[in-house]
What does this fold into?
Amino acid sequence: MKILAIETSCDETSCAVVEDGRVVLSNVTATQIDEHSLYGGVVPEIASRRHCENIVGVCEAALVEADCRISRDIDAVAVTYAPGLIGALLVGVNFAKGLAAAHDKPLIPVHHIKAHIASNYLSGECRPPFLAVVVSGGHTSLIHARDYTDFSVIGATLDDAAGEAFDKAARAMGFPYPGGVYIDRESVNGDAHAYKLPFPKTANSFDFSFSGLKTAVINLIHNTKQTGGSVNAPDLAASFQYTVCEMITSKAIAAARHAGADTLCLSGGVAANGGLRAALLRECDANGFTLHAPPLCYCGDNAAMVGSQAYYEYTSTILTADMSLNAYATLGL
Ligand code: KG4
Ligand code: ZN
It folds into this structure.
């Protein structure tokens, strides 16, 4: 089954053709990062307008690369409909509805977080059940994936998402948006124990809280400047990254034990972080768990992961959307 998938939940316009949930025939993405970085973050209206301009070209490129024609080769159209920036989501949803209606194809709505989890199916032999560790710009969640479409949330962030914390700390350190990757690079030359940063406690031990950590970084930089000193950037980047990664890793291992899962699957933009991948691998090895993590090209937002999850949604529930499908800025799993 070949699915044409569309993703426009934030600042990447992406279209992909995915066969049977696992084989990526094409995955074309137009990123808007350069434009948003001028403003230090995503400007929702600009994101919607760029999706509007780019979506037809990106979709055509994905079909050409996969050597497919919609009417002849595509079995269904899938689209991210929640959660995300509402104006951005609406562009993808309406475009997908138009395609599905014009070519009389089933329309499969996909939840963005479930799609991130499915990025693990695009390489290797990953199969549920497992403990999903979703770390992105908008979400930080520990989710028990019992099956491809059966999830329960064990823990989530109470304030900032992991990627948001990376981006805000990076901004305080003077790096451009999105700053996660700059902290990752800078950390390589730093001492992770040079600065002692807080390790916030939460009432539910599987939940996260990153805002205190972000504030601690901002205050540290401010106070050091006030006293005429200067912060060692690689050391601060490494100390921040170490604290975030240890927090995610320790809670993920505890949540896997709690769920009775012997496999962990990392996903989301922050899954590209070298320190996080290394820390999780170390702890999975030490505790006898298997770790899956998608290749870097499927960590950030992309339509291939949407095409993968859509296949499992369609084959397990045959639940398709009609032409009244709407987009939602927030939606539980
Ligand atoms: O999954 P994603 O592309 O978008 C959302 O669904 O939110 O995640 C984007 C986030 C940004 O906050 C970005 O800074 C972060 O992923 N990110 C990283 C790295 N690469 C991207 N954070 C830490 N280390 C990285 N190497
Ligand atoms: Zn995402």
